Amino acid sequence: MEELKKLLFSGDAENLAREVGRLLGEGTAPDKILNEGLIAGMGVVGGKFKNNEIFIPEVLISADAMQAGMKVLEPRLIEAGVRPIAKVVIGTVKGDLHDIGKNLVSMMLKGSGFQIEDCGIDVPAQKFIETINKSEAQILAMSSLLTTSMPAMKSTIEELEQNGLRGKVKIMVGGAPITEGFAREIGADGYGKDAVEAVDLAKGFLKIGVS
């Protein structure tokens, strides 16, 4: 597990995937690799990012390595019946084509044990609604990097209310122009200023310990 953490922190995707495969071949339980290796490792990365010891490029490299490990691990997790802690629908709202922040949040959430349904960019409210209904997700995460697309967050929440879904999902929002005050104003349940805060927020919704 310590070797997995080292490979994750260094962003060595190829050797991380190989190490996951080796551990599986030796009979290590998939959930042990996930929880004590990948999730624990991403927790260290998140903590260092929160403390300004590393920055977004380093986090992205580690997240990419985690994704490589998860590709090897996921089929075995499914076989073993290991379930995600929750499902999150995520996307950049209508009128906005930015995706770097959204992708980082998505990878950090996945690295913390969440199942991600990524709607992509320029997402209309109806697509969010359809994905929530199909996936039965517990959380909706919306991103906006443009002041001109911020109103789409409010209209999406209003459409969720009209479709009877508002009480079924927790909503968190983020992005450069978004503030905690704006989140409250539009009726969101929370705001994360970065990917680490987004993970803590999602865990908080589920009453799971935060980093």
What does this molecule look like?
With 211 residues, this protein is α/β, with parallel strands linked by helices. The protein has helices at 2-10, 13-25, 30-50, 56-79, 100-110, 125-135, 150-162, 180-186, 195-205; strands at 87-92, 115-118, 139-143, 170-174, 190-191. The protein has 2 domains: 2-79, Orthogonal Bundle (Methyltransferase, Methionine Synthase (B12-binding Domains), Chain A, domain 1), CATH 1.10.1240.10; 87-205, 3-Layer(aba) Sandwich (Rossmann fold). Strands 2-1-3-4-5 form a 5-stranded parallel beta sheet, sandwiched between helices. Strand 1, helix 5 (100-110) and strand 2 form a beta-alpha-beta unit. The protein is globular. The model has no long low-confidence stretch (mean pLDDT 93).
Order of helices and strands: HHHHEHEHEHEHEH
Task: Give the count of helical stretches.
Answer: 9
Strand content: 5-15%
Widest β-sheet, arrangement of strands: 2-1-3-4-5
| Assigned CATH class of the largest domain | Alpha Beta
CATH homolog superfamily of the largest domain: Cobalamin-binding domain
Assigned CATH architecture of the largest domain: 3-Layer(aba) Sandwich
Biggest sheet descriptor: 5 strands, parallel
Low-confidence spans: none
Shape: globular
* End-to-end separation: 19 Å
